[in-house]
Amino acid sequence: MVDMLTFALSKLLVAGAVGACIAGSDGRVLGEAGAADWEKAAPLIPAAAASWNCLAGDLGSEGFTGALIEADSGVLIVMPLPGDDVLAVLLKPGANPGRVRYEMKKNLELIASVI
Amino acid sequence: MTGTLPAGISLGTMEAPLSWIYSHTIRFLGKVQMFVQDGEGFILIRRGEAQAYCFRHGGITLRGNGAREYLLSQDVIKFSLCKYTEEEFGQAMTWCREHNVPVHDPDRETQDIPPPLSPTPPASSPSPPPSPALETGVLMVAECRGSELSIISGSRPSGLSCSSILAAIESSRTLADAMNAGEFSGFILETPDGVLFAAPTGEGAVCVLAEGGIPIGRIKSMLASISPER
Description:
With 115 residues, chain A is an alpha+beta fold. Chain A contains 3 helices and 5 strands. In chain A, 34% of the residues lie in helices and 28% in strands. By secondary structure, chain B is α+β, with helices and mostly antiparallel strands. In chain B, helix 2 crosses helix 5. Strand 3 of chain A pairs antiparallel with strand 9 (184-191) of chain B.
């Protein structure tokens, strides 16, 4: 049986997205969907989010609203959730980041409500 | 930077917007050598059609569209017209290919060429300053070298430092590695006020700050065209 969180995350697996995950502020995986392996990355996400928030502060903002990391074998899109949790989605090369980003924003409230 | 290009015959030096150059080089074959602040570059023009752009400022070299967009952002440019023979023009095009400057050559179409510019019809009066449309939304282009943030164009947010940019790059790279995503090439940070694009270089990083909503593809092509001088 698919729980609500997995269902909500699976809505993000579109347009080349291969995995979605919520990393807690302690680096634990709170929920995931798809085929990506988050065990190594999730503990690193809180520190990365802190560095992005620091940079956003330098730019005069209170915090970051999204980050897109590009590498030659994939793209990672990250968005902050309430309570210092972080939503992350992994895309395969050639995916459509704009479409995935749109789905993430659209479903952010739903995902936050079922954590 | 144009020292290794053929010198040609100088027709003189003047100042004008880039649009003026397009509209007054319909019969010109040669190099337009540009000087903007401390930077220097050139456009190769064959009878009104720009075929290669290159501009260098400090350790940054803009090639192709990046150079064109930077030059278009300037209200006025100091430049020299240097007339070439066909042979000299061919030598200059070869120099560009050897130095990774994208060239538009109708006889040798390749995928990495910039789209040719359509020359503006000759104007009877001085042309107005170029449209800022290509640069709309871009607030800053900068380079991090060590701890020094060097502004290429635009203005620097007062709190912005290289240490924050490089730390964010390192965090992003670590995360990409942990996801086995391959070689890290850069990141885009969104805030409520704008977007920062940053990419690592051999000596630090280059970054572009833009207003939110700017097409990401345009900024990515601008970042790709910025590369450290080798």
